[in-house]
UniProtKB/TrEMBL annotation:
Keyword Cytoplasm (UniProt): no
Domain of life, per lineage: Bacteria
Pfam family, any one: LacI
Keyword Lipid biosynthesis: no
Domain HTH lacI-type, chain residue ranges per copy: 1-51
Protein name: Periplasmic sugar binding transcriptional regulator, LacI family
InterPro entries documented for this protein: HTH_LacI (IPR000843), Lambda_DNA-bd_dom_sf (IPR010982), Peripla_BP/Lac1_sug-bd_dom (IPR001761), Peripla_BP_I (IPR028082)
Keyword set, alphabetical order: DNA-binding, Transcription, Transcription regulation
């Protein structure tokens, strides 16, 4: 291409990389015309080796089918693109083994950094640290590990959601939560419990319905709840669970908020459910 433009390889490099040396406008235009004529495309791998950066980041998430996770991934991808970066998505599909393989593959691709939320409370932090790759956890991690993390205070958020129901006059409040061995589930259940205890209301263990963070999970938990005495209000700790709950209620000719006040956690633009008078 340098021959086509009638200039040196170095000058072509200056034009493509916008420096480090200035190029006369006429020469620059000749190089651009040559690029268009030859259909030249820069070698991304070679440029990465030369610059020490791939302009590529990895995002590893537990399950992209979760609307909250997909909304977050979409926002991160949009920001990466706006800043001239590429974001590679790794969907673990709720598999710890697959999560390990995804992280390993992204590290082998020499991504410039990782954004990571783990399937469970045992993230592969040491694996990432062994490569000195910068990373940010999008999750709760042990403070003793001293890693960068961005997280929601899920206990406080669950407290606020439950308190909202209490402020609307509800005194019998059930909860549909995730699997009890998950840290975020424990945070959300504790926030629900904190709000009830602060208001002097009883904590009924029979009104804790643990299930998966899915529509079927919410549906099955609601069906179980509807076999007993109906509470005044329900806190579902996930948007998909709320959808499943509404389906179960409809099958019993019940509606929200007329028959059961309903509020959910992790809502996206797909759903806006809250309690009303």
């Amino acid at each position: 291409m340098a021959r086509e433009a009638g200039t040196s390889v170095a000058v072509v490099s200056y034009v493509i990389n916008n420096g480090p040396r200035p190029v006369a406008e006429l020469t620059r235009q000749r190089v651009l015309d040559a690029i268009e004529k030859t259909g030249y495309r820069p070698n991304g791998i070679a440029r990465a080796l030369a610059s020490g950066t791939t302009k590529t980041y990895g995002l590893v998430v537990p399950n992209i089918s979760n609307p909250f996770i997909s909304s977050m991934a979409h926002a991160l991808q949009r920001e990466a693109f706006a800043n001239g970066q590429v974001l590679l998505l790794g969907d673990a599909g709720d598999s710890r083994q697959r999560e390990f393989e995804l992280i390993n593959n992204l590290l082998l691709r020499q991504v410039d950094g990782l954004l990571y939320t783990s399937v469970d409370h045992h993230p592969y932090i040491e694996l990432i640290q062994s490569t000195a790759t910068p990373f940010v956890m999008l999750d709760r991690v042990d403070p003793a590990q001293q890693v960068c993390a961005i997280r929601v205070d899920e206990r406080a958020a669950a407290f606020q959601a439950t308190q909202h129901l209490i402020e609307h006059g509800h005194r019998e409040i059930a909860i549909i939560c995730g699997p009890l061995d998950m840290l975020n589930t424990q945070d959300r259940v504790n926030g629900w419990r904190d709000a009830l205890l602060q208001a002097g209301l009883p904590v009924r263990n029979e009104w804790i319905f643990a299930t998966s963070y899915t529509r079927p999970g919410g549906y099955q938990a609601a069906q179980q709840m509807l076999k007993g005495r109906l509470p005044q209000a329900l806190f579902t700790t996930n948007e998909l669970q709320a959808f499943g709950c509404l389906r179960a209620m409809a099958e019993h000719n019940l509606t929200a908020p007329k028959d059961l006040a309903l509020i959910c956690f992790n809502g996206t633009s797909n759903l806006n459910i809250t309690c009303r008078h």
